[in-house]
Amino acid sequence: xxxAIQVYGLEKSYGSHIVLQGLDLQIETGExxxxxxxxxxxxxxxxxxxxxxxxxxxxxxxxxxxxxxQLQSSSLPSYIKPMEAVKLFAxxxxxxxxFSMLDTLGIKEIERKQYIQLxxxxxxxxxxxxxxxxxxxxxxxxxxxxxxxVEGRLSLHDQIRKLKSQGKTIVLAxxxxxxxxxLSDRIAILNDGNIVFCGTALELTEKVGKxxxxxxxxxxxxNTFETDNIEDTxxxxxxxxxxxGIGVLDIKVDRGTxxxxxIEIARRAEE
Length: 271
Description:
Blueprint: E1 3-14, E2 17-28, E3 32-36, H1 43-51, E4 58-63, E5 67-70, H2 82-92, H3 99-104, H4 120-131, E6 138-142, H5 150-165, E7 169-173, H6 177-183, E8 186-191, E9 194-199, H7 201-208, E10 212-218, E11 221-227, H8 230-244, E12 248-255, H9 258-270
Parallel strand pairs: 3-7, 3-8, 5-6, 6-7
Antiparallel strand pairs: 1-2, 1-4, 8-9, 10-11, 10-12
Helix pairs in contact: 7-9
């Protein structure tokens, strides 16, 4: 199966400021691919170059399929109604309206409102519906659940999984690490204009360690330890507390989050 997106040697500068330094990237057809990067890493520039929204200095971008794009920041005329926008985009894309998709995203509930009256979450749902209106093969979602409540986020996650089951390729940009872990097939970490990691969440964990966080509550207060070896850390700390005669009230162990792994990868890249 051919890749949905292929990027080779992508370079982009703004004056003397180099943003992308020969970036290479391949996104497989039918996967949910997430691009992570701290502010200034070049994430938005990379996506905009692939989407055709920004010119790049050199390199090659190959997109195999029709794109649908939900931007992080976008707007519509203040007094247009959601269904008017849906009909306009459907006509523009020469596509039939998918009423099932509109129901899933809750567009029917807001169809009589004007755009200016919509909440942030309602606007994001509408923007996603418009991105899907042309039945695209590749869908770019930039912070898709920003401004949504818990129910709206879960509903949107289900919609994203449904799109994947239909063979769509999803390119996701998100700062919600739980969302990234729940949805992504592969993750790429962009730092200083280069990809410093590309693989699954499990491969990322294996690369930077298991990162357990141990919280021990005692009669004298709370202590937190970060470790790759939970057994040795617990035995050592509990032995020391017992030797000092300090009673243990509670123990909690957390697995390291994707965010911690991301920070560790970025730190290593800086070094």
